[in-house]
Q: What sequence folds into this?
DNA sequence: AATAAGTTTCAATTATTTTTGAAAGTTTAA
DNA sequence: TTAAACTTTCAAAAATAATTGAAACTTATT
C-alpha cells in the first residue's frame, strides 16, 4: 500500500468509526486528517482533501475546537488560519473523557437522581423501579469517578493503570 | 414526581443518551423500559408504552437480543413472547464492552495495523504518518486489552477496580 | 389440514441529521 | 476608509437513518 492510499484509508476508517459513536463523519475525518499531518493545515486544504464545502469545514472545525482537541495556528506572514490536532493520545483521551462526562454523564446523573428518589409507595413495580434506577445511579457515578481518577494520572495514564491492574 | 412521570422521564433520557452514542433511540428506550420492569413485557405492551409500530418493536428487540442484553421469555399457558433485560449492571457493561470491541475496535485495529506498516520512504510527512498511526495502534490495543482485563474480574469489577486504583 | 395467534421482513414513507453555498461578517493592509 | 482576504452563519437541499404497515411467514390449536 502506498502513502496516499493508506492516509485515505485511515481518514475514511476514522470517519466511519465516528459515526458509530455519535460523532459526525466529517468531524471525525477532519480530526483524522489533522492527526496524521506533520504540519498545520489550512481550511482550503481540508476542503480539498475531503471534498467538502467551506461551511461544513468551518462548522466542524469550530466543533473540534470546542472539544479542545484541535487548535488554530497562525503562520508568520500568512493571512489565513491553520489548524492542528492534539497529537498526544493520553491528552486526547483525557479531553474526550472530560467533555463527554460534562456533556452527557453529568446531566444523566442528575436525571437518575431525580427519578430514583420518588416516593415508592408499596407496589412491587414501583419498588423495583426505584431499586434499579438507584443501582444505575450508583454505577454510573462510580464509573464517572473512576474515569476521572484514571485520567488524573495524566501522563501515560493508560500504561500506569495497566501496571496497577497487573499487581 | 409520581411514578409514571419518573418512568417516562427515565425512558426518554435513556433514549436520548443512546442517540448520542450511536444507538438508535427506540432501541435504547426499549432497553430502558425492560430494565425498570419487574416482570417480562410483551411486544404489545412495548408498542403501547412507547407508541411504536410492531415492525419497529420487532427489529429493535432482535437487535437487543443480538447484543445479548435482552432475553426472550415464555410464560406457561401463554402463546406470546415476553422480554426481559439483563438487569445486573456489571454483566450489562461486560456484554456491551465485548460487543463493541468485537464489532468496532477489532476491525479498527486491523486497519490501523495495515496503514501503519506501509513502507515509509524518507519524507517527513510519511514518517510522521507511520509514527502517529503506530502510536494509535498501540494505544487502542492497550485500551482494548485493559477493558478485557477489567471485565474479567466479572463480579463487581468496577468496585474491585476502584479499590486497586486507590492503593 | 384449516384456522387462528403471533412474529418477521422489507419496500415505501417519514423524520432526522448533515451538507451546501451564498450572503453577511470580520480582520488586515494599503 | 476602502478593498481584498478570509471566516462564519444559516436557510434550503441532500443524504442518511429510522419507522411504518401490510404481506409473508411460523407455530400452535382445534
A:
Amino acid at each position: 500500500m502506498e502513502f496516499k492510499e493508506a492516509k485515505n484509508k485511515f481518514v475514511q476508517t476514522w470517519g466511519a468509526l465516528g459515526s458509530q459513536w455519535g460523532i459526525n463523519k466529517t468531524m471525525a475525518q477532519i480530526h483524522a486528517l489533522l492527526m496524521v499531518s506533520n504540519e498545520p493545515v489550512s481550511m482550503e486544504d481540508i476542503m480539498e482533501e475531503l471534498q467538502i464545502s467551506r461551511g461544513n469545514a468551518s462548522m466542524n472545525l469550530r466543533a473540534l475546537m470546542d472539544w479542545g482537541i484541535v487548535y488554530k495556528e497562525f503562520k508568520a506572514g500568512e493571512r489565513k488560519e491553520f489548524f492542528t490536532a492534539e497529537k498526544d493520545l493520553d491528552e486526547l483521551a483525557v479531553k474526550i473523557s472530560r467533555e463527554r462526562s460534562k456533556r452527557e454523564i453529568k446531566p444523566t446523573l442528575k436525571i437518575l437522581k431525580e427519578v430514583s428518589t420518588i416516593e415508592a409507595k408499596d407496589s412491587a413495580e414501583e419498588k423495583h423501579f426505584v431499586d434499579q434506577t438507584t443501582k444505575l445511579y450508583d454505577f454510573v457515578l462510580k464509573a464517572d469517578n473512576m474515569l476521572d481518577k484514571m485520567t488524573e494520572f495524566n501522563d501515560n495514564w493508560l500504561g500506569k493503570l495497566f501496571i496497577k491492574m497487573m499487581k
User: Anything to note?
Assistant: Residues 24-26, 52-56, 59, 79 of chain B lie near DNA strand D (CB under 10 Å from a C1').
